[in-house]
Specification:
two-stranded parallel ribbon
Length: 278
């Protein structure tokens, strides 16, 4: 199968492209060449800007399936919903089947999010999801992705220059986590067995974010301060409760364990006090 992937050099996209290129012909859409485009030699790279409709059309012209992994942001740091809509409009206009990448962090009021369509009043991507499903595609909603010597996890939880980490919200609040290799395998599973459904990329563990910071404090010797400060505080203000029954029903099974069992490998050696998690 010929599969085009938007955002193929990004954190999620590169691992998806790597996994799929072992069994499929992958076309990677990327803004520019970089180490990722050089390393993934099985991928056919198409360099350009997704804002250029002609570039997008030509890049996906011969694809049987498009996986939309690109997540664009405005200069203010907000998700660029207008560009995302334009991209989806263009892909669907070419009559391509789509696997759309969404998020489990769009809803922050603590309700249980099941693998069904939700009101766009809760989160703008839910309207995009519905359009994809109506066109016969599939949706993958991401938990908090970590691992693979990349990503944003450590950057938002690491101690600051004064060796402090800042924690706010409720101690019992949980984050739906997903290890990047398990996530890439979920995309592969959806490509080969997807049934026009929504699939949650969640490892199945109830990971309390407060315990994450406790473990980081123990390993690094940093001090925990109860104060809303830093990017991570945006995640701490709510519980994200989810299910993953559709994903499991496809035969997908997370095998990398939970975040706490992998945390030692996510903390750079220079932060450690010769302590290791057990």
């Amino acid at each position: 199968m010929k599969i085009a992937i938007t955002g193929a050099r990004g954190y999620v996209g590169r691992f998806v492209a790597q996994a799929l290129s072992k069994e499929h012909d992958v076309i990677g859409l990327a803004r520019s060449n970089c180490q990722v485009t050089e390393d993934l030699t099985r991928v056919k790279w198409c360099i350009g800007d997704l804002e250029d409709i002609n570039y997008l059309k030509s890049s996906i012209e011969h694809a049987d399936l498009v996986i939309h992994c690109a997540m664009s942001y405005t200069q203010e740091g907000n998700e660029d919903d207008k560009l995302d809509k334009q991209i989806v409009d263009t892909i669907l206009a070419q009559n391509k089947k789509v696997i759309y990448t969404s998020s489990l962090f769009g809803v922050k009021d603590g309700r249980l999010i099941v693998e069904k369509t939700q009101s766009s009043e809760l989160y703008w991507r839910f309207q995009q999801e519905e359009r994809i499903l109506q066109a016969g595609g599939d949706v993958v909603r991401l938990g908090f992705v970590y691992g693979g010597n990349a990503g944003y996890f450590w950057e938002i939880v690491k101690p600051d220059s004064d060796n402090n980490v800042y924690v706010t919200g409720q101690r019992e609040s949980i984050w739906p986590m997903i290890q990047i290799y398990d996530l890439a395998n979920l995309y592969l599973t959806v490509v080969e067995h997807g049934q026009n459904q929504i699939y949650h990329a969640w490892d199945g563990y109830q990971t309390q974010y407060f315990e994450i910071f406790n473990q980081i404090s123990w390993v690094t010797g940093c001090k925990i301060i109860n104060q809303r400060l830093g990017y991570a505080s945006n995640f701490m203000l709510s519980t994200n409760r989810v299910t993953n029954s559709n994903s499991i029903s496809l035969g997908w099974k997370p095998v990398q364990g939970d975040l706490l069992s992998n945390l030692d490998g996510l903390i750079p050696e220079k932060y450690k006090l010769n302590l290791h998690l057990t």
